[in-house]
Request: fold
Amino acid sequence: MLKVLKLESSKKKGQSNLSMNQTLEGHEQVVCVVTWNEKFRKLTTSDEHGLIIVWMLHKGMWFEEMINNRNKSVVKGMKWTPDGKRICIVYEDGAVIVGSVDGNRLWGKEVGCELAFVEWSPDGANILFGTAMGEVRLYDNDCNFISKVPVACVTANSGAKLIGLQWFPSNLDKTTPCLAICYQSGHLQIMRHNNDENPILIDTEFVASKLQWNTYGTVLAIAGTRTSTGPMRRIGYIIHMIAFFIVFRTRWYYSEVSDGSVLQRQRKALADP
Reply:
């Protein structure tokens, strides 16, 4: 099931009103990938059979604007450029398609490896691909290979599973950490740019499943799980975790939430200027 909800601020402090609750009908299979175009206010979704739908809002209702299905592989990632004018779609079999916001296909190529994630550089000039083997590769916007991004948080060629790749779009000065690469093992690196030789390296100490920047690029959240070893909870109990990494200028602080409880490692400095 795919739903669009809209919350509007209430006159009562701390409360919101639900002004939209629409079920989007078009996918017959499980929806696996969702991406939002902030500039043009469009929603793009893909299901487990590779069907892609671009949704647009018209007179207060969401409608299908475009439908596409390559019928060969599963979509693993979709990302719009920061200006919202182009979308990059990557498939598990290594196919890459870039299209325009008006529905035109700009190009399609094969990169020769299984893909898992895609991300645009802040200026839209380059594309990062995360592979099924845990590598991060940099290409130009015509899909010409440039280099591999150095990953220091996990052992090279270990096949570590990548769970997230996010390059916050507003940072262009190459001084503030903005490129986050995270693995299922909980190992994370945050880079100032794709050639950063001194990234921030973090071990979250739990199994990571998702990462997300906030809308200002000042807080990075990592979600995952940890298995209890006692004594506060029974052995084997699955604890749901969220770690927040907060940046003030060039100094990072760490706060962690476990099943609703804030842990003691709050505001731990991770890196100095």
About this structure: The two ends are 46 Å apart (CA to CA). The chain has two domains: 30-149, 157-273.
